[in-house]
Amino acid sequence: MHKTDAARIRRLNERPGQKGAYVLYWMQQSQRAKHNLALEFAISRANDLDVPVVVVFGLTVNYPEANYRHYLFMLEGLAETQRQLRERGIPLVVLENSPPLAALDLGKKAALIVTDKGYMRHQREWRAQVAEQASCQVVQVETDVIVPVNIASQKAEWAARTIRPKINRELDNFLLLPEKCALKNKVRDFDIQGLDLSDPASLLKNLGMPETPPGVSAFFKGGASAAQKRMDKFIQKSLDNYSRHHNRPDLADVSGMGPYLHFGQVSAAALALRVKNLKDADPEAQAAYLEQIIVRRELAMNFVHFTPNYDQYACLPTWAQKTLKERAQDPRDPLYTPDQLEACDTHDPYWNAAMREMVVTGYMHNHMRMYWGKKILEWSPSPQKAWDVLLYLNNKYFLDGRDPNSYAGVGWIFGLHDRGWNRRPIFGTVRYMAASGLERKCKIKDYVARIESLTP
Predict the structure, then answer these.
(1) How many domains does the chain have?
(2) Helix, strand or coil, per DSSP, at residue 69
(3) What is the residue range of 393's domain?
(4) How far apart are CA 403 and CA 407, in angstroms?
(5) pLDDT digit string, tens, across residues 219-249
(6) Does residue 385 lie in a domain region?
(7) How far apart are CA 229 and CA 292, in angstroms?
(8) Spatial distance between the Cα atoms of 439 and 431, rounded to a whole number of angstroms
(9) How far apart are the C-alpha atoms of 92 and 25, rounded to whole Å?
């Protein structure tokens, strides 16, 4: 293992070592078989203990704000991960149970439980529960960020400009891929089979999950292979234009890796290194992409890690809450109900197209996400109502909703990680976005035409 890997590894309890039938990797956040330090650490420890590795995943139909669309994408990825782990002699057992109870169930026979790190409130609570109740040692491995959050900073950062130098100081130490370990004791048959992942849609039907909102496999299929194909296409056709075009929704010169990163189906470090090591790529395009996948993404991780109420309006900076409160009584015309917004039924064809892209594909170009959110703030009775509607739509339709990036993105609409701008009605000094800006910066009607042509 690399010498800096120790900074990613943390014991969650003080249980002594014990004999066990296997090392259990409780996979929850990092749902991949490749470039996964938690998995490789589990294999290394299993080799030391001369036992095999078993991987468990807890599937609960009550996951916070998750729905059919999210589950289908996730299970498509888990099915591929299960096949890849089987080739390494490691069974992946998916149990219909809450994640901590699934880990504790198979952890009864484990010599050690290894888990990956999640940053959301419930993910931390789950790991604390397992650490407290497990009879064996529990070790957490941080493998879904490049620079570990507590090493990058010890506080909630104000903006990208404040966290960027801190990340860059550590980047050479941590922008590495984990070394792949060969497992000594392989398992061909495991006595607990778990759920059958061969047909994710049928599995969800058997679990009684309503098919709403519908899956989006025609646009975004889950799994590392689909992610690689999408990334290959991005590098071949779009990367060199990224620094000039990433804010142009009409051209869609973006990677679309958000959903795959959200479910841990790909490694941020692997994506960053692939782009960084390209020999003939445009240097400005490389730098722009690395800024997004490292600095901006890890600013969002910093936000949810150091902000307990990251999903509440009260998490916003004091200056933003103050200026929005001062303008709370300003007339708002038009006003739209949540139902009208969800139905893409406003006077603004650009906004309607963005909402349609989200509803139909589970994705929205990032520049349109900003415009989309600013207009909801403008068209809602109050900032608090706007916050509530934004989070509801964000978490329901986006594949990568319910994610640190999404919570930070919603917060940005209201001034998080931003600065004050010229004062205006409704927004105060919070940044405003106008349709004229879209018209000036891109061929926005081409974007509308493309989205209107989509077939659900």
Answers:
(1) 3
(2) helix
(3) 313-452
(4) 6
(5) 999 999 999 999 999 999 999 999 999 999 9
(6) yes
(7) 20
(8) 18
(9) 9
